[in-house]
């Protein structure tokens, strides 16, 4: 089994449509032991969703923007497992005024919230969990290709570009500790977060037609499978990488009329 014996932390499970839910399911199917996190009022929803998994993992309360809460979860995992083999960072948020075509008018307060939650939190979580990864391990985050200026994505696009850069710097600094750090650029998926982006269909509408392999916006399974691969020892030589799981959309040029 791909992840037999692995102890993994999975953030961002909200509903069964979540990419993180798919990753958690694959991890369990492949032999891992997992713990989920969410924070505040969403913890109860994650607990409900966790019951849909092959076995029901515990859900811990953790705000990734709080060093104290990250430290508390690290202490809990140390007491529970004594180590951590990897984690999935599936955390992103931007206020509504940072999305939807409002780029020039978005105030710094909203920009800073988007960047801290969606990019800086990867560093915060890595720094908090790295002491548990004494034997090395794998850190994976979820991206939406930050190389481009997407319609309506605005400051979240900037935050995702930041996430990609944070990935490379973490790979540099954690590599000597045998900790790999990679990000998965997924095609659009109809999660709660995706559907909350104003004009989401402007990005997702033509994806299936343009992607050489096609793309199902209702199916996060291919992304979950890629996350499981990166969390496994089969990815031992891969770090600092942005891996596209988007049906090949990223490799195609602009369509001509």
A few lines on this structure:
With 257 residues, this protein is an alpha/beta fold. It has nine helices and seven strands. It has a single domain, classed as NAD(P)-binding Rossmann-like Domain (Rossmann fold, 3-Layer(aba) Sandwich).
Description:
With 257 residues, this protein is of the alpha/beta class. The protein has a single domain (7-244), classed as NAD(P)-binding Rossmann-like Domain (Rossmann fold, 3-Layer(aba) Sandwich). It has helices at residues 19-29, 42-50, 67-80, 108-129, 154-174, 192-195, 200-204, 207-210, 221-231; strands at residues 7-11, 33-38, 59-61, 86-89, 137-143, 179-186, 242-245. The chain has a 7-stranded parallel sheet, sandwiched between helices. Helix 1 (19-29) links the parallel strand 1 (7-11) and strand 2 (33-38).
Indicate the topology:
Layout: E1 7-11, H1 19-29, E2 33-38, H2 42-50, E3 59-61, H3 67-80, E4 86-89, H4 108-129, E5 137-143, H5 154-174, E6 179-186, H6 192-195, H7 200-204, H8 207-210, H9 221-231, E7 242-245
Parallel strand pairs: 1-2, 1-4, 2-3, 4-5, 5-6, 6-7
Helix pairs in contact: 1-9, 3-4, 4-5
């Amino acid at each position: 089994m791909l992840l037999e014996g692995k102890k993994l932390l999975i953030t961002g499970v909200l509903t069964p449509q979540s990419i993180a839910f798919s990753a958690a399911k694959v991890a369990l199917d492949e032999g891992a032991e997992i713990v989920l996190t969410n924070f505040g009022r969403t913890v109860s929803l994650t607990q409900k969703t966790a019951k849909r998994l092959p076995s029901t993992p515990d859900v811990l309360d953790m705000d990734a923007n709080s060093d104290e809460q990250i430290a508390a979860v690290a202490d809990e995992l140390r007491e529970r497992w004594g180590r951590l083999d990897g984690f999935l960072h599936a955390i992103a948020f931007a206020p509504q005024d940072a999305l939807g075509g409002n780029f020039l008018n978005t105030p710094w307060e909203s920009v800073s919230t988007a960047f801290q939650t969606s990019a800086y939190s990867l560093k915060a979580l890595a720094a908090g969990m790295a002491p548990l990864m004494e034997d090395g391990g794998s850190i994976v985050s979820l991206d939406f290709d930050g190389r481009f200026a997407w319609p309506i994505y605005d400051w979240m696009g900037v935050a995702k570009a930041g996430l990609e850069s944070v990935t490379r710097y973490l790979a540099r600094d954690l590599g000597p500790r045998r900790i790999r750090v990679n990000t998965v650029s997924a095609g659009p998926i109809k999660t709660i977060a995706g559907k909350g982006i104003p004009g989401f269909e402007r990005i997702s509408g033509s994806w299936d037609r343009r992607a050489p392999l096609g793309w199902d916006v209702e199916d996060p399974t291919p992304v979950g499978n890629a996350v499981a691969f990166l969390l496994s020892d089969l990815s031992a030589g891969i770090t600092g990488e942005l891996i596209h799981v988007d049906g090949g959309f990223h490799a195609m040029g602009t369509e001509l009329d």
